[in-house]
Design a protein that fits this description.
The protein is of the alpha/beta class. Helix content is 45%, strand content 14%. The protein folds into three domains: 141 residues, no CATH class; 120 residues, NAD(P)-binding Rossmann-like Domain (Rossmann fold); 291 residues, Rossmann fold (3-Layer(aba) Sandwich). The protein is built from 21 helices and 25 strands.
Length: 691
């Protein structure tokens, strides 16, 4: 007994016993029957038409030849059509490919028909052959019937889509940017999608050859400079960007113009959707602020990175944070021997633990809670798990908070890095990668100065190890205990140390915890105001995946002591970023959402520098990644000073900034000086941002 598949979402079909027949197989069988009858009918009609539609006038020898050959021929046609894949296509979406295969199959069988019927029945026929019109009309009728039967699905689909498009009067009026293949696919998908009420009213394209022409009945009205006029003339409610092949600079310029309209803005994510055919209204996404940066994302070749990570024990400190958690995701995807997540905040650590356990059930994962300030805890972890690679992302990062609690910045960032690096060194770690920041360059705040101390710690460790003097690196702790590295007093623990220490310097990370974008979005959701510290404040930006790629690459390129720096492209004005984000949210700056300037916060600079001028740059294999030549300083004096700095930090001394300034010559705790406004580097950055 046949029963229909009961489950929603499964393809239609029937089941007979243990045999399931799919819906498309039923359609194919019906097509075969139709084709058989159509072939027979087409050549009969050709013969009938040849004799003026009078059956009695058809000579008996012609009828005998037809009836004796047609049924075998029709069966042979079914075989040929099957070879031409005429029973496996989705005719609802039939295109020129299916049309070509149908005509090719019909032509081949028509030629075979003419040849064989003439050879077999020619001697018995008057004139030695069937009438010429029989062959011609028979072949034409056969082709017409085959094509009509198949493309009726496509015709019905198109007609119903046109009917639905005509009925769409309540949806959004869309201005489409892009009259290429992607634009055409979006246009047709919108016309055919019953669940979408939006309709395209006009099209913009930068190719003048397309202007004043029509695409599927929709006018192409001009280039990007006509967006504002077209949006007003056609009363558009939204703008869709279908330009996946556009460069980031081109896309940024077009988005900037579109933002001036104040309309909703969506776009195709990129060329991936174009190459995979995933071009539809549902594939459109909101335009993000990242699209306004106007530069290509870093596309690092991480094969050798993951070859290095594969099969090794990897520790990520601060593994629950924005950068740390993304590091954990990418590491987990490439089969480490063991991944250790270490964080002081259990909620973040627990969240990334659950995520990775669900996605990678076979991953050897350890999630540990603790502080990098705790020497005993760090020694315990390194002694037990013996990590071979350490990504040190644990840090206090928020500038205003650290200005209010400067000793905490030194304890966690500088001393925490020192203790973690020391534990890594004496427990056989192969590579230690520090996450630094561009705020470490000529710092004006204690957070940036503490990260510069971290870089100097890494450089000091590297210099001592390369000089074979690792034993001269003092072990810092606020309590003497089992973590003492040289327990037997022989110094054997310092022999054959090979740990490579490097730092990676980042700009501001879009979407990270506490970054400006999430703050702006929350302020916009509340109806404003959006707060910007200064109308001329400038920052470099990068995405979290880019930042993590650079960290991973640093671990591969490292030879010890380097500071890796990413070329983050042109700087961005925070004020411009805020205004664009307001527009992307469908509001008008200073009309719907007010912008307030609150003044520079303590320790905040108008612009961040990627690299100290005296450091210089060296190229790497990646053109967008550089290595800063380390600044020279007295490592012995610096290491001696760290002990006193630690005591001052743990003693919460009020003069901690003065102590740091004595160790970091580029630290200017007094903040932004008035003369910085005359600085040529600053004026150059302002000009770049304005562009």
């Amino acid at each position: 007994m046949a029963d229909r598949a009961p489950k929603k979402g499964l393809s239609k079909g029937i089941r007979i016993g243990s045999l399931r027949i799919e819906h498309w197989q039923i359609i194919s069988a019906l097509l075969m029957i139709f084709d058989y009858l159509a072939v027979c009918a087409s050549y009969f009609l050709a013969l009938w038409l040849r004799f003026d539609g009078n059956y009695s006038k058809i000579p008996l020898d012609y009828l005998n030849a037809y009836t004796g050959f047609i049924f075998i021929y029709a069966a042979g046609c079914i075989v040929v059509y099957g070879i031409c894949r005429m029973y496996n296509s989705m005719w609802r979406y039939a295109s020129f490919t299916e049309l070509f295969r149908t005509l090719a199959g019909s032509t081949v069988t028509a030629v075979i028909h003419s040849v064989l019927i003439s050879l077999i029945y020619g001697p018995t026929l008057s004139g030695g052959r069937m009438p010429l019109t029989y062959h011609i009309f028979g072949a034409l009728l056969q082709a017409v019937m085959l094509v009509a039967a198949r493309f009726v699905f496509r015709f019905v689909k198109v007609m119903s889509a046109l009917g639905r498009a005509a009925e769409k009067t309540n949806g959004k009026r869309v201005l489409l940017v892009g009259a290429g293949s992607s634009g055409q696919m979006i246009l047709r998908d919108m016309a055919q999608a019953s669940e979408v009420d939006d309709r395209v009213v006009c099209i913009i394209d930068d190719n003048p050859n397309k202007w004043h022409r029509y695409l599927d009945g929709i006018p192409i009205v001009g280039g990007r400079e006509d967006i504002l006029k077209a949006a007003a003339d056609y009363k558009a409610d939204a703008i869709y960007l279908a330009i996946p092949s556009a460069t980031p600079e081109q896309k940024r310029d077009i988005i900037s113009i579109c933002n001036e309209t104040g309309l909703e803005l969506k776009q195709l994510p990129g060329m991936y959707q174009f190459t995979t055919g995933q071009i539809s209204v549902s594939a459109m996404k909101e335009v993000s602020v990242e699209d306004l940066l106007g530069r290509d994302p870093i596309r690092a070749d991480l094969r050798e990175v993951f070859e290095y990570i594969h099969g090794k024990v990897v520790l990520v400190t601060g593994g629950g944070g924005s950068i740390g958690s993304e590091l954990c995701r990418q590491i987990a995807a490439h089969a480490p021997k063991q991944l250790i997540i270490f964080d002081v905040y259990e909620n973040n650590a627990y969240a990334i633990q659950l995520e990775l356990k669900e996605k990678y059930p076979d991953l050897n994962l350890e999630t540990l809670i603790g502080s990098v300030r705790d020497s005993r805890r760090m020694f315990e972890i390194f002694s037990r798990y013996r990590p071979q690679i350490v990504y040190h992302a644990a840090a206090h990062k928020h500038v205003p908070l650290m200005e209010d609690s400067p000793c905490e910045s030194i304890k966690n960032n500088a001393i925490g890095t020192y203790k973690t690096a020391y534990a890594a060194m004496v427990h056989g770690c192969e590579r230690f990668v520090l996450i630094s920041t561009d705020k470490a360059v000529n710092p004006t705040n204690i957070m940036g100065a503490s990260k510069r101390l971290c870089e100097m710690i890494i450089q000091s460790f590297d210099a001592k190890i390369k000089a074979g003097k690792a034993a001269e690196i003092p072990q810092l702790f606020t309590h003497v205990g089992v973590e003492n590295a040289d327990k037997d007093g022989t110094g054997s623990v310092f022999r054959n140390i090979r740990t490579e220490f490097v730092a990676v310097r980042f700009g501001n990370v879009l979407g990270s915890n506490g970054s400006v974008i999430p703050i702006f979005k929350k302020q916009i959701e509340r109806g404003g105001p959006v707060t910007v510290t200064h109308p001329d404040i400038i920052r470099y930006f990068m995405t979290i995946p880019e930042a993590v790629s650079l960290v991973m690459l640093a671990g591969t390129y490292a030879k010890g002591g380097e500071i890796f720096v990413l070329d983050m492209g042109s700087p961005v004005k925070i004020d411009t970023l805020a205004r664009n984000l307001i527009r992307l949210s469908g509001f008008k700056p200073d009309v719907d959402i007010r912008i307030e300037y609150t003044g520079l916060r303590p320790g905040e600079k108008l612009y961040e520098e990627k690299l100290m001028a005296e450091e210089g740059l060296q190229k790497t294999e990646n053109d967008l990644i550089h290595i800063g030549c380390p600044l020279k300083f007295d490592e012995d004096r610096f290491l001696r000073q760290l002990g006193a700095l630690m005591d001052a930090a743990y003693g919460n001394k009020p003069n901690i900034r003065e102590l740091v300034a004595g160790m970091v010559s580029t630290y200017h705790p007094e903040g932004i000086r008035p003369e910085v406004m005359k600085d040529q580097a600053y004026r150059r950055l302002v000009h770049e941002a304005d562009q």
